[in-house]
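User: Now give one protein:

AI:
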Amino acid sequence: MKTVNKFSDSNELFPYSFSYKSSKEPQNELPNHMHDFYEIIYVHGGKGVFFIQNTLYKMGIGDVFIIPNDTIHHAKPDKNDLVTSSVIFFSPALIQTISTDESFSYLSLIKEIKKEKDYKIHLSEKHQVKLEQYLANIHQELKEQKLGCSHASVLITHHILLELSRLRANQNTEPSVKKDNNRDWINDIFSYIDQHLQHNISLTTIADEALVSPAHFSRVFKDITGMGLTVYINKKRIFKAKELLITTNYTISYIAEKCGFESIPHFYRTFKKYIGTTPAHFRKENVSK
């Protein structure tokens, strides 16, 4: 699984894409993936589940999902009631940063969501109408291609980020995470993996932790995440390694050990497979930015 690039080379100056009221059959959804851009998903109708990072969310009308960069996710619509959604894909470089006395910024919502790992906001009917109008306006701007339509689309996206920030700040209800009651154990396993990345995690060990058979665990895990256990663990280890390469001065060998790789060559091979470059080159390119 590699990073998805939503923007074409010819559109690098405007890293923004929009999908309006589209529906996909389950087999046409992307498998488990992540990307460097941000994503705002609004559900107009239909049902399904959404695997984001370590949690399963139920999808339904009025749900908004915020996907930060480097976040594993995979949508699974109900084949008998397909999800219809609108999606905004954008680079954070398009979002304004204005110096004021307020602590608010347009990207603060995404930073908080990434920190708290709660990716879903459910809208009341009143706020559904408001957000749907914003999305319809973006669709109209991009469809008509009038002067300044790109600017208008980004400005509307700023409005959406502001509205969602206010809603989330005012929410004092129950957490939005909705677990599948038949699979509560899988959510606990995602947390277990995060906490034990430095150690050897075998299928037998983790199935015992979940109190299910290895065969049942493998079947359910792949059904939910779209990948096998080994691939998932390697991806999680690489995400952790990326963060440590950028935010610490740890040696590459220490990072490899801390992330649970059995050897330096194994770390280099896995890192290059998923990121497309070596750990040293990745650190040099990103720390110097």
User: Anything to note?
Assistant: Residues 3-170 form a domain with the Jelly Rolls fold (CATH 2.60.120.280). Strands lie at 3-4, 16-23, 34-35, 38-45, 48-52, 55-59, 63-67, 73-77, 84-90, 120-122. The chain has two domains: 3-170, 182-287. The chain has a mean pLDDT of 84.
